[in-house]
Amino acid sequence: MWQEVQNLIKTSGNRVKADSSLLEQLLEPDFAYEFAIPVYMDNGKIKVFKGFRVQHNNWKGPYKGGIRFHTGVNLDEVKMLSGLMTLKNSLVDLPFGGAKGGVVVDPHTLSERELELLSRGYVDKVYNFIGPDKDVPAPDVNTNPKILGWMQDEYERITQKKEFSAFTGKPIEFGGSYGREEATGFGGVVVLKALIDQLDLFKNKDKISIAVQGYGNVGYYFAKFAVDEGFKVVSVADSRGYIYVEQGIDPVATLNCKREKGSVAGCYCVGSVCDLKFGKNITAEEFFSLDVDVLVPAALENAINESNMQNIKAKIIVEMANSALTKSALDYLTSNGKIIVPGILANSGGVIGSYFEWVQGRSGYWWSKDKVLTGIEEKLVKAVSYTAEYMLKSNLSLVESCYDLAVKNLIRARKSFR
Ligand code: NAD
Q1: Ligand 1, atom 30, residue with closest C-alpha
Q2: Are 106 and 211 in a shared domain?
Q3: pLDDT, tens digit, for every residue of 299-327?
Q4: Cα(303) to centroid of ligand 1, in Å?
Q5: N or C: fewer beta carbons within 10 Å in the chain?
Q6: 342 shares a domain with 203
Q7: Is 278 helix (H, G, I), strand (E, B) or coil?
Q8: What is the pLDDT of residues 46-104, one digit of tens each?
Protein backbone atom coordinates (compact mmCIF):
# COMPACT_ATOMS: atom_id res chain seq x y z
CA MET A 1 0.00 0.00 0.00
CA TRP A 2 2.81 2.40 0.88
CA GLN A 3 4.53 1.55 -2.38
CA GLU A 4 1.41 2.61 -4.30
CA VAL A 5 1.50 6.02 -2.61
CA GLN A 6 5.26 6.28 -3.27
CA ASN A 7 4.53 5.61 -6.95
CA LEU A 8 1.78 8.25 -7.03
CA ILE A 9 4.17 10.82 -5.50
CA LYS A 10 6.94 9.85 -7.95
CA THR A 11 4.66 10.02 -10.99
CA SER A 12 3.19 13.39 -10.01
CA GLY A 13 6.61 14.73 -9.03
CA ASN A 14 8.00 13.84 -12.45
CA ARG A 15 4.96 15.29 -14.21
CA VAL A 16 5.28 18.64 -12.42
CA LYS A 17 9.09 18.56 -12.88
CA ALA A 18 9.78 18.63 -9.13
CA ASP A 19 13.35 19.03 -7.91
CA SER A 20 14.52 15.41 -7.73
CA SER A 21 16.34 15.74 -4.40
CA LEU A 22 13.22 17.22 -2.77
CA LEU A 23 11.00 14.59 -4.36
CA GLU A 24 13.24 11.85 -3.00
CA GLN A 25 12.64 13.16 0.53
CA LEU A 26 8.91 12.58 0.11
CA LEU A 27 9.45 8.93 -0.71
CA GLU A 28 10.30 7.92 2.86
CA PRO A 29 8.64 8.99 6.13
CA ASP A 30 10.69 11.26 8.39
CA PHE A 31 10.09 8.88 11.32
CA ALA A 32 8.35 5.53 11.82
CA TYR A 33 7.84 4.43 15.42
CA GLU A 34 6.76 0.92 16.39
CA PHE A 35 6.20 0.13 20.07
CA ALA A 36 4.64 -2.18 22.65
CA ILE A 37 1.77 -0.98 24.88
CA PRO A 38 1.32 -3.12 28.00
CA VAL A 39 -2.20 -3.06 29.49
CA TYR A 40 -3.39 -4.51 32.81
CA MET A 41 -6.44 -6.45 31.66
CA ASP A 42 -9.52 -7.07 33.81
CA ASN A 43 -8.37 -10.65 34.41
CA GLY A 44 -5.28 -9.33 36.26
CA LYS A 45 -2.85 -10.29 33.48
CA ILE A 46 -0.79 -7.95 31.32
CA LYS A 47 -1.52 -7.98 27.60
CA VAL A 48 0.86 -6.31 25.18
CA PHE A 49 -0.57 -4.43 22.16
CA LYS A 50 1.42 -3.27 19.18
CA GLY A 51 1.31 0.47 18.40
CA PHE A 52 2.59 2.66 15.56
CA ARG A 53 3.10 6.34 14.81
CA VAL A 54 4.51 7.38 11.45
CA GLN A 55 5.46 11.00 10.76
CA HIS A 56 5.78 11.35 7.03
CA ASN A 57 6.62 14.99 6.36
CA ASN A 58 6.41 18.40 8.09
CA TRP A 59 7.47 20.94 5.48
CA LYS A 60 4.15 22.78 5.69
CA GLY A 61 3.59 22.51 9.46
CA PRO A 62 3.34 20.09 12.40
CA TYR A 63 2.69 16.45 11.51
CA LYS A 64 -1.06 15.73 11.59
CA GLY A 65 -3.13 12.56 11.32
CA GLY A 66 -5.48 10.16 13.10
CA ILE A 67 -5.00 7.10 15.30
CA ARG A 68 -6.75 3.91 14.24
CA PHE A 69 -7.69 0.96 16.51
CA HIS A 70 -8.13 -2.09 14.27
CA THR A 71 -6.86 -5.66 13.98
CA GLY A 72 -5.68 -4.95 10.41
CA VAL A 73 -3.29 -2.13 11.41
CA ASN A 74 0.31 -2.67 10.24
CA LEU A 75 3.36 -0.52 9.49
CA ASP A 76 2.82 -0.56 5.71
CA GLU A 77 -0.76 0.70 6.12
CA VAL A 78 0.21 3.40 8.63
CA LYS A 79 3.02 4.64 6.32
CA MET A 80 0.58 4.78 3.42
CA LEU A 81 -2.00 6.71 5.44
CA SER A 82 0.66 9.13 6.76
CA GLY A 83 1.80 9.90 3.20
CA LEU A 84 -1.78 10.53 2.12
CA MET A 85 -2.19 12.96 5.04
CA THR A 86 0.81 14.99 3.84
CA LEU A 87 -0.69 15.18 0.35
CA LYS A 88 -4.20 15.98 1.62
CA ASN A 89 -3.03 18.82 3.87
CA SER A 90 -0.95 20.20 1.05
CA LEU A 91 -3.78 19.99 -1.51
CA VAL A 92 -6.26 21.92 0.66
CA ASP A 93 -3.52 24.27 1.82
CA LEU A 94 -3.41 23.65 5.58
CA PRO A 95 -0.32 24.51 7.66
CA PHE A 96 0.19 20.84 8.53
CA GLY A 97 2.35 17.94 7.47
CA GLY A 98 1.25 14.31 7.49
CA ALA A 99 1.26 11.54 10.10
CA LYS A 100 -0.81 8.53 11.13
CA GLY A 101 -0.97 6.15 14.06
CA GLY A 102 -2.58 2.90 15.01
CA VAL A 103 -2.89 0.02 17.43
CA VAL A 104 -3.46 -3.61 16.48
CA VAL A 105 -6.61 -4.32 18.47
CA ASP A 106 -10.31 -5.03 18.15
CA PRO A 107 -11.55 -2.43 20.64
CA HIS A 108 -14.98 -4.11 20.81
CA THR A 109 -13.36 -6.97 22.75
CA LEU A 110 -12.09 -4.62 25.50
CA SER A 111 -13.93 -3.38 28.57
CA GLU A 112 -14.23 0.40 28.98
CA ARG A 113 -11.46 0.31 31.60
CA GLU A 114 -9.13 -1.65 29.32
CA LEU A 115 -9.83 0.71 26.42
CA GLU A 116 -8.97 3.72 28.57
CA LEU A 117 -5.70 2.10 29.73
CA LEU A 118 -4.79 1.26 26.13
CA SER A 119 -5.51 4.84 24.98
CA ARG A 120 -3.47 6.31 27.82
CA GLY A 121 -0.74 3.69 27.23
CA TYR A 122 -0.46 4.85 23.60
CA VAL A 123 0.21 8.41 24.79
CA ASP A 124 2.77 7.19 27.35
CA LYS A 125 4.78 5.88 24.39
CA VAL A 126 4.44 8.85 22.03
CA TYR A 127 4.18 11.96 24.26
CA ASN A 128 7.78 12.94 23.66
CA PHE A 129 7.43 13.35 19.94
CA ILE A 130 3.89 14.76 19.70
CA GLY A 131 2.43 18.16 20.75
CA PRO A 132 0.70 21.21 19.22
CA ASP A 133 3.85 22.30 17.35
CA LYS A 134 5.21 18.84 16.59
CA ASP A 135 2.53 16.28 15.75
CA VAL A 136 -1.21 16.55 16.39
CA PRO A 137 -3.13 13.22 16.44
CA ALA A 138 -6.89 12.90 15.80
CA PRO A 139 -9.54 10.15 15.65
CA ASP A 140 -9.78 7.58 12.88
CA VAL A 141 -11.44 4.17 12.54
CA ASN A 142 -12.71 2.94 15.96
CA THR A 143 -11.41 5.95 17.88
CA ASN A 144 -13.79 8.69 19.00
CA PRO A 145 -13.94 11.90 21.08
CA LYS A 146 -14.00 9.94 24.34
CA ILE A 147 -10.78 8.10 23.45
CA LEU A 148 -9.17 11.34 22.28
CA GLY A 149 -10.26 12.95 25.57
CA TRP A 150 -8.40 10.21 27.53
CA MET A 151 -5.37 10.76 25.31
CA GLN A 152 -5.43 14.54 25.77
CA ASP A 153 -5.81 14.10 29.54
CA GLU A 154 -2.87 11.68 29.68
CA TYR A 155 -0.71 14.06 27.64
CA GLU A 156 -1.54 16.95 30.00
CA ARG A 157 -0.89 14.72 33.05
CA ILE A 158 2.58 13.77 31.79
CA THR A 159 3.61 17.22 30.54
CA GLN A 160 1.97 19.01 33.51
CA LYS A 161 0.44 21.75 31.39
CA LYS A 162 -2.83 22.53 29.61
CA GLU A 163 -2.41 22.02 25.89
CA PHE A 164 -5.79 22.37 24.20
CA SER A 165 -4.30 21.71 20.77
CA ALA A 166 -2.24 18.57 21.47
CA PHE A 167 -5.05 16.42 19.99
CA THR A 168 -8.07 17.19 17.83
CA GLY A 169 -11.42 15.41 17.72
CA LYS A 170 -11.80 15.85 21.50
CA PRO A 171 -15.14 16.11 23.32
CA ILE A 172 -16.71 19.59 23.00
CA GLU A 173 -16.57 20.01 26.80
CA PHE A 174 -12.81 19.29 26.80
CA GLY A 175 -11.47 21.68 24.16
CA GLY A 176 -13.16 20.09 21.14
CA SER A 177 -14.77 22.01 18.31
CA TYR A 178 -18.38 22.25 17.22
CA GLY A 179 -18.72 20.80 13.74
CA ARG A 180 -15.69 18.48 13.96
CA GLU A 181 -17.90 15.41 14.37
CA GLU A 182 -19.75 16.00 11.11
CA ALA A 183 -16.86 17.71 9.28
CA THR A 184 -15.72 14.79 7.09
CA GLY A 185 -19.15 13.71 5.82
CA PHE A 186 -20.26 17.33 5.45
CA GLY A 187 -17.12 18.13 3.49
CA GLY A 188 -17.63 15.14 1.19
CA VAL A 189 -21.05 16.45 0.18
CA VAL A 190 -19.66 19.98 -0.33
CA VAL A 191 -16.97 18.53 -2.64
CA LEU A 192 -19.51 16.45 -4.57
CA LYS A 193 -21.86 19.40 -5.07
CA ALA A 194 -19.06 21.75 -6.10
CA LEU A 195 -17.71 19.23 -8.63
CA ILE A 196 -21.15 18.60 -10.11
CA ASP A 197 -21.53 22.35 -10.57
CA GLN A 198 -18.02 23.12 -11.82
CA LEU A 199 -17.84 20.21 -14.26
CA ASP A 200 -21.55 20.33 -15.14
CA LEU A 201 -21.80 16.59 -14.53
CA PHE A 202 -25.56 15.98 -14.66
CA LYS A 203 -28.15 17.44 -17.00
CA ASN A 204 -30.94 16.70 -14.53
CA LYS A 205 -29.76 17.54 -11.03
CA ASP A 206 -32.98 16.34 -9.40
CA LYS A 207 -32.71 13.20 -7.31
CA ILE A 208 -29.19 12.17 -8.13
CA SER A 209 -28.94 8.71 -6.55
CA ILE A 210 -26.20 7.69 -4.13
CA ALA A 211 -25.03 4.46 -2.46
CA VAL A 212 -22.87 4.73 0.68
CA GLN A 213 -20.73 1.88 2.01
CA GLY A 214 -20.07 2.37 5.75
CA TYR A 215 -22.47 3.90 8.25
CA GLY A 216 -20.04 5.14 10.88
CA ASN A 217 -19.02 8.74 11.41
CA VAL A 218 -18.19 9.46 7.78
CA GLY A 219 -20.88 7.39 6.04
CA TYR A 220 -23.71 8.56 8.28
CA TYR A 221 -22.94 12.27 8.00
CA PHE A 222 -22.33 11.96 4.26
CA ALA A 223 -25.77 10.35 3.86
CA LYS A 224 -27.41 12.90 6.15
CA PHE A 225 -26.02 16.01 4.45
CA ALA A 226 -26.59 14.47 1.00
CA VAL A 227 -30.29 13.99 1.77
CA ASP A 228 -30.46 17.51 3.26
CA GLU A 229 -29.07 18.79 -0.06
CA GLY A 230 -31.70 16.96 -2.14
CA PHE A 231 -29.74 13.87 -3.20
CA LYS A 232 -31.46 10.49 -2.93
CA VAL A 233 -29.48 7.96 -0.86
CA VAL A 234 -30.85 4.59 -1.95
CA SER A 235 -28.38 2.20 -0.34
CA VAL A 236 -26.21 2.11 2.78
CA ALA A 237 -24.13 -0.56 4.44
CA ASP A 238 -22.16 -1.43 7.53
CA SER A 239 -19.88 -4.35 8.34
CA ARG A 240 -22.90 -6.56 9.06
CA GLY A 241 -24.95 -5.96 5.94
CA TYR A 242 -26.22 -3.90 3.02
CA ILE A 243 -29.68 -2.43 2.41
CA TYR A 244 -31.44 -0.95 -0.62
CA VAL A 245 -34.40 1.42 -0.35
CA GLU A 246 -35.74 2.53 -3.73
CA GLN A 247 -37.56 5.58 -2.32
CA GLY A 248 -34.40 6.70 -0.51
CA ILE A 249 -33.46 6.24 3.12
CA ASP A 250 -34.21 8.47 6.06
CA PRO A 251 -30.64 8.81 7.46
CA VAL A 252 -31.60 9.73 11.02
CA ALA A 253 -34.23 6.97 11.38
CA THR A 254 -31.74 4.49 9.91
CA LEU A 255 -29.07 5.55 12.40
CA ASN A 256 -31.48 5.23 15.33
CA CYS A 257 -32.52 1.80 14.12
CA LYS A 258 -28.88 0.72 13.60
CA ARG A 259 -28.11 1.76 17.18
CA GLU A 260 -30.96 -0.38 18.42
CA LYS A 261 -30.43 -3.42 16.18
CA GLY A 262 -26.65 -3.30 15.81
CA SER A 263 -26.71 -3.03 12.01
CA VAL A 264 -28.50 -1.20 9.21
CA ALA A 265 -29.32 -4.63 7.82
CA GLY A 266 -31.74 -5.27 10.68
CA CYS A 267 -33.68 -2.11 9.92
CA TYR A 268 -35.66 -2.88 6.81
CA CYS A 269 -38.14 -5.56 5.81
CA VAL A 270 -37.03 -9.13 6.31
CA GLY A 271 -39.89 -11.36 5.20
CA SER A 272 -42.96 -9.66 6.61
CA VAL A 273 -41.15 -8.04 9.56
CA CYS A 274 -40.45 -4.36 8.90
CA ASP A 275 -38.98 -1.75 11.22
CA LEU A 276 -38.57 0.84 8.49
CA LYS A 277 -40.67 0.39 5.39
CA PHE A 278 -39.87 -0.33 1.75
CA GLY A 279 -36.28 -1.50 2.07
CA LYS A 280 -34.63 -4.81 1.41
CA ASN A 281 -31.35 -6.46 2.26
CA ILE A 282 -28.85 -6.89 -0.57
CA THR A 283 -25.43 -8.52 -0.88
CA ALA A 284 -22.12 -6.68 -1.16
CA GLU A 285 -21.93 -7.83 -4.77
CA GLU A 286 -25.34 -6.33 -5.52
CA PHE A 287 -24.34 -3.12 -3.75
CA PHE A 288 -21.34 -2.54 -6.03
CA SER A 289 -23.47 -3.32 -9.11
CA LEU A 290 -26.25 -0.82 -8.27
CA ASP A 291 -27.47 1.48 -10.99
CA VAL A 292 -26.75 4.68 -9.05
CA ASP A 293 -25.18 7.98 -10.07
CA VAL A 294 -22.70 8.23 -7.20
CA LEU A 295 -20.92 5.51 -5.24
CA VAL A 296 -19.38 6.44 -1.90
CA PRO A 297 -16.99 3.96 -0.24
CA ALA A 298 -16.82 5.23 3.37
CA ALA A 299 -15.66 2.15 5.27
CA LEU A 300 -12.13 0.77 4.85
CA GLU A 301 -9.41 0.74 2.18
CA ASN A 302 -9.44 -1.50 -0.93
CA ALA A 303 -13.24 -1.77 -0.93
CA ILE A 304 -13.29 -1.27 -4.71
CA ASN A 305 -10.96 -3.78 -6.28
CA GLU A 306 -10.51 -6.37 -9.02
CA SER A 307 -13.47 -8.39 -7.75
CA ASN A 308 -16.11 -5.67 -8.17
CA MET A 309 -14.70 -2.90 -10.43
CA GLN A 310 -16.24 -4.33 -13.61
CA ASN A 311 -19.77 -4.18 -12.15
CA ILE A 312 -19.68 -0.51 -11.13
CA LYS A 313 -22.25 1.62 -12.98
CA ALA A 314 -21.95 4.88 -11.01
CA LYS A 315 -20.57 7.85 -12.94
CA ILE A 316 -18.82 9.34 -9.89
CA ILE A 317 -16.98 7.56 -7.08
CA VAL A 318 -16.33 9.66 -4.00
CA GLU A 319 -13.49 8.08 -2.05
CA MET A 320 -14.46 8.98 1.52
CA ALA A 321 -12.39 6.14 3.03
CA ASN A 322 -8.70 6.67 2.38
CA SER A 323 -7.40 4.46 -0.41
CA ALA A 324 -10.81 2.83 -0.93
CA LEU A 325 -9.83 1.97 -4.50
CA THR A 326 -6.94 -0.32 -5.33
CA LYS A 327 -4.53 0.93 -7.99
CA SER A 328 -5.90 -1.46 -10.61
CA ALA A 329 -9.50 -0.44 -9.82
CA LEU A 330 -8.50 3.22 -10.07
CA ASP A 331 -6.83 2.68 -13.46
CA TYR A 332 -9.65 0.51 -14.78
CA LEU A 333 -12.46 2.86 -13.74
CA THR A 334 -10.64 6.01 -14.89
CA SER A 335 -10.02 4.49 -18.31
CA ASN A 336 -13.74 3.66 -18.44
CA GLY A 337 -14.63 7.33 -18.06
CA LYS A 338 -15.60 7.33 -14.37
CA ILE A 339 -14.84 10.38 -12.29
CA ILE A 340 -12.96 9.39 -9.16
CA VAL A 341 -12.76 11.94 -6.37
CA PRO A 342 -9.63 10.88 -4.45
CA GLY A 343 -9.70 10.71 -0.66
CA ILE A 344 -7.15 13.52 -0.37
CA LEU A 345 -9.86 15.87 -1.65
CA ALA A 346 -13.12 14.03 -0.83
CA ASN A 347 -12.52 13.46 2.89
CA SER A 348 -10.38 16.51 3.63
CA GLY A 349 -13.29 18.25 5.42
CA GLY A 350 -12.27 16.21 8.48
CA VAL A 351 -8.76 17.57 8.73
CA ILE A 352 -9.97 21.09 7.90
CA GLY A 353 -12.33 20.74 10.90
CA SER A 354 -9.34 19.53 12.94
CA TYR A 355 -7.34 22.52 11.78
CA PHE A 356 -10.06 24.85 13.07
CA GLU A 357 -10.10 22.95 16.39
CA TRP A 358 -6.33 23.41 16.64
CA VAL A 359 -6.63 27.13 15.85
CA GLN A 360 -9.40 27.56 18.46
CA GLY A 361 -7.40 25.70 21.12
CA ARG A 362 -4.34 27.85 20.50
CA SER A 363 -6.27 31.10 20.65
CA GLY A 364 -8.47 30.02 23.57
CA TYR A 365 -11.61 31.20 21.76
CA TRP A 366 -14.24 28.75 20.52
CA TRP A 367 -16.38 29.25 17.43
CA SER A 368 -20.03 28.40 16.67
CA LYS A 369 -20.82 25.28 14.61
CA ASP A 370 -22.02 27.52 11.82
CA LYS A 371 -18.69 29.34 11.63
CA VAL A 372 -16.78 26.04 11.55
CA LEU A 373 -18.94 24.48 8.81
CA THR A 374 -18.92 27.69 6.76
CA GLY A 375 -15.12 27.79 7.04
CA ILE A 376 -14.86 24.16 5.87
CA GLU A 377 -17.18 24.87 2.95
CA GLU A 378 -15.18 27.92 1.86
CA LYS A 379 -11.88 26.04 1.87
CA LEU A 380 -13.32 23.07 0.00
CA VAL A 381 -15.13 25.07 -2.67
CA LYS A 382 -11.84 26.89 -3.29
CA ALA A 383 -9.92 23.60 -3.47
CA VAL A 384 -12.44 22.11 -5.92
CA SER A 385 -12.28 25.26 -8.02
CA TYR A 386 -8.47 25.28 -8.47
CA THR A 387 -8.35 21.51 -8.89
CA ALA A 388 -11.07 21.50 -11.57
CA GLU A 389 -9.35 24.41 -13.33
CA TYR A 390 -6.02 22.54 -13.31
CA MET A 391 -7.74 19.38 -14.55
CA LEU A 392 -9.42 21.10 -17.49
CA LYS A 393 -6.22 22.96 -18.42
CA SER A 394 -3.90 19.96 -18.16
CA ASN A 395 -6.24 17.33 -19.58
CA LEU A 396 -5.42 15.01 -16.70
CA SER A 397 -7.83 12.99 -14.55
CA LEU A 398 -9.16 14.47 -11.31
CA VAL A 399 -6.99 12.08 -9.32
CA GLU A 400 -3.82 13.03 -11.22
CA SER A 401 -4.69 16.72 -10.86
CA CYS A 402 -5.12 16.42 -7.09
CA TYR A 403 -1.79 14.62 -6.65
CA ASP A 404 0.05 17.03 -8.95
CA LEU A 405 -1.22 20.05 -7.05
CA ALA A 406 -0.44 18.45 -3.67
CA VAL A 407 3.15 17.66 -4.67
CA LYS A 408 3.58 21.09 -6.31
CA ASN A 409 2.41 22.92 -3.16
CA LEU A 410 4.73 20.88 -0.98
CA ILE A 411 7.78 21.47 -3.15
CA ARG A 412 6.91 25.16 -3.39
CA ALA A 413 6.75 25.40 0.44
CA ARG A 414 10.20 23.82 0.75
CA LYS A 415 11.76 25.85 -2.04
CA SER A 416 10.41 29.20 -0.86
CA PHE A 417 13.33 29.81 1.51
CA ARG A 418 16.12 27.87 -0.19
P1 NAD B 1 -16.17 4.33 11.71
O2 NAD B 1 -15.46 3.27 12.46
O3 NAD B 1 -16.99 5.33 12.43
O4 NAD B 1 -17.14 3.65 10.62
C5 NAD B 1 -16.72 2.68 9.72
C6 NAD B 1 -17.99 2.05 9.11
O7 NAD B 1 -17.61 1.13 8.10
C8 NAD B 1 -18.84 1.27 10.12
O9 NAD B 1 -20.21 1.52 9.87
C10 NAD B 1 -18.51 -0.18 9.78
O11 NAD B 1 -19.55 -1.07 10.14
C12 NAD B 1 -18.36 -0.06 8.29
N13 NAD B 1 -17.65 -1.19 7.67
C14 NAD B 1 -16.49 -1.78 8.05
N15 NAD B 1 -16.21 -2.80 7.23
C16 NAD B 1 -17.21 -2.86 6.32
C17 NAD B 1 -17.49 -3.70 5.22
N18 NAD B 1 -16.68 -4.71 4.89
N19 NAD B 1 -18.62 -3.47 4.49
C20 NAD B 1 -19.45 -2.46 4.80
N21 NAD B 1 -19.23 -1.62 5.83
C22 NAD B 1 -18.13 -1.83 6.58
O23 NAD B 1 -15.04 5.03 10.82
P24 NAD B 1 -15.12 6.44 10.12
O25 NAD B 1 -14.55 7.45 11.03
O26 NAD B 1 -16.47 6.62 9.57
O27 NAD B 1 -14.07 6.25 8.94
C28 NAD B 1 -14.40 5.59 7.73
C29 NAD B 1 -13.27 5.80 6.74
O30 NAD B 1 -13.09 7.20 6.49
C31 NAD B 1 -11.91 5.30 7.19
O32 NAD B 1 -11.23 4.78 6.09
C33 NAD B 1 -11.20 6.54 7.69
O34 NAD B 1 -9.80 6.45 7.59
C35 NAD B 1 -11.74 7.56 6.71
N36 NAD B 1 -11.67 8.92 7.24
C37 NAD B 1 -12.29 9.25 8.40
C38 NAD B 1 -12.24 10.57 8.84
C39 NAD B 1 -12.97 10.99 10.09
O40 NAD B 1 -12.98 12.19 10.37
N41 NAD B 1 -13.60 10.10 10.82
C42 NAD B 1 -11.52 11.53 8.11
C43 NAD B 1 -10.92 11.16 6.92
C44 NAD B 1 -11.00 9.84 6.49
Answers
A1: 321
A2: no
A3: 988 999 999 999 999 999 999 998 899 99
A4: 11
A5: C
A6: yes
A7: coil
A8: 999 999 999 999 999 999 999 999 999 999 999 999 999 999 999 999 999 999 999 99
Report which of residues 98 and 276 the model is more confident about.
98
From 300, 307, 352, the mutation candidate for ligand 1 (largest count of ligand atoms within 8 A of CB) is 300
Distance 322 CA to ligand 1 centre (A): 9
Number of structural domains in the chain: 2
Report residue 355: phi and psi, to 5°: -60, -45
Q: How many CB atoms lie within 10 A of CB 146?
A: 16
Residues 33 and 152 in one domain: yes
215 lines ligand 1 (CB under 6 A): yes
How far does the centroid of ligand 1 lie from the alpha carbon of residue 174, in Å? Answer: 24
| Whether residues 92 and 240 fall in one domain | no
Domain boundary pick from 307, 330, 346? 346
Distance CA 80, CA 323 (A): 9
* CB 181 less than 6 A from any atom of ligand 1: no
Rama region for 359: left / alpha / beta (φ>0; ψ in -120 to 50; rest): alpha
Ligand 1 centroid from CA 73, angstroms: 14
What's the Cα-to-Cα distance from 8 to each of 14, 75, 80, 323, 327, rounded to whole Å?
Answer: 10, 19, 11, 12, 10
CATH at 76: 3.40.50.10860
Same domain membership, residue 157 and residue 188: no
Is there an atom of ligand 1 within 6 Å of 185 CB? no
Q: What is the mean predicted confidence (pLDDT) over 375-395? A: 97
Structural domain of residue 107, as residue ranges? 29-165
Q: Model's pTM, two decimal places? A: 0.95
Does residue 274 sit in the same domain as residue 339? yes
